[in-house]
Amino acid sequence: NIERNIAVMIEEKELDHKNTAAPRVGIIMGSDSDLPVMKSAAEILRAYGVPHEVRIVSAHRTPEMMFSYASSAHEQGIQVIIAGAGGAAHLPGMVAALTPLPVIGVPVRSSSLDGIDSLLSIVQMPRGVPVATVAINNATNAGLLAVRILGVADSNLLSRMSQYQEDQKEIVLRKGEKLEA
Ligand code: RP5
Predict the structure, then answer these.
(1) Is the separation of the CB atoms in 38 and 29 below 8 Å?
(2) Predicted TM-score of the model (pTM)
């Protein structure tokens, strides 16, 4: 797992040389096989200039690492955790049990059950331990939700999010115009 973590960190560094400030968002996932999906969350944060880190932290294979990461994240300056996992996807829920920070869960599509297993494992949390679950494989929305959460206390992020929404509206309206023409 150390090798995998290093590989992910190197990849992240190669993707973004500017992401050197103390991370505000922690993107974690159960396996490096989740990375092709989870990359989209990092891309959103990169676009908004939000410092973040990307790590492999497995609830089942590295439970001690999961415990220490989740229980100390808020002391390290992390403000939101995005956790992706597939199959018996216990990572987001366990992390939410260990941190006071908001946790966004990304159900990663598994090979056998199409991601329904991941979705249900993540979304069906007991009362008192919330995980904000996005759609299967939708790490983009996890990144956008993290930006919105940070935007509550960051007017720059908030106004950029409003602009993004305006841009989306514009794109849809233009597509509609083309259909009529
Ligand atoms: C989960 O098991 C991971 O989040 C991943 O989605 C799934 C399969 O992991 P690998 O066997 O591909 O490492 O813990």
Answers:
(1) yes
(2) 0.90
Q: Is the CB of 106 under 6 A from ligand 1?
A: no
Distance in angstroms (rounded) separating the CA atoms of residues 130 and 132: 6
* Whether residue 30 has its Cβ less than 6 Å from ligand 1: yes
- Tell me the ipTM for this assembly: 0.97
Ligand 1, closest atom to CA 85? 4
Third-level CATH fold of 2-154: Rossmann fold (3.40.50)
Per-residue model confidence as pLDDT tens digits over 44-74: 999 999 999 999 999 999 999 999 999 999 9
The answer, yes or no, to whether any atom of ligand 1 lies below 6 A from the CB of 26, is no
The answer on pLDDT for 108 being more than 70 is yes
Burial of 71 (0-12, 13-18, 19+ CB in 10 A): middle
Closest-lying ligand 1 atom to the alpha carbon of residue 84: 4
> Residue 160: left if φ>0, alpha if ψ -120 to 50, beta else—which one?
alpha
Question: What number does the ligand 1 atom closest to the CA of 110 have?
Answer: 6
CB of residue 92 inside a 6 A radius of ligand 1: no
Bridge partners of residue 84, in order along the sequence? 29, 106
